[in-house]
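Incident log, support desk, overnight shift.

02:14 A customer reports that sequence design results differ from what the structure should imply. Their input is reproduced verbatim below. On-call engineer (initials T.W.) acknowledged and began investigating.
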């Protein structure tokens, strides 16, 4: 046993610095990819009213962040902030606005 009490083993990857936008919620990409071919976004447009002005928020801009929040383990509306503050996740999904 060495002086530190922990064996000196190396993991098979390297850490580095990046300038790219990243997200810790990338696992939600599977959910998002499954919703597109299943027609969830199309049904959202079909069944929910569209905004009455050009400043309004489209139905999927409400529904998809909430669905991702619940899929990711969110339990209350305050948890939507995690998606709202994650610029990598918003870029990945193309969210312009998270209500």
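02:41 Re-run completed on a clean worker. Output:
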């Amino acid at each position: 046993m060495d002086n530190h009490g922990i064996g000196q083993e190396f993991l098979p990857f390297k850490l580095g610095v990046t300038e790219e936008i990243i997200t810790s919620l990338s696992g939600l990409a599977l959910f998002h990819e499954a919703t597109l071919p299943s027609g969830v976004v199309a049904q959202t447009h079909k069944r929910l009213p569209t905004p009455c002005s050009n400043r309004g928020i489209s139905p999927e801009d409400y529904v998809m962040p909430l669905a991702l929040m619940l899929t990711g383990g969110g339990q209350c509306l305050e948890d939507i902030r995690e998606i709202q503050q994650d610029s990598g996740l918003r870029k990945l999904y193309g969210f312009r606005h998270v209500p």
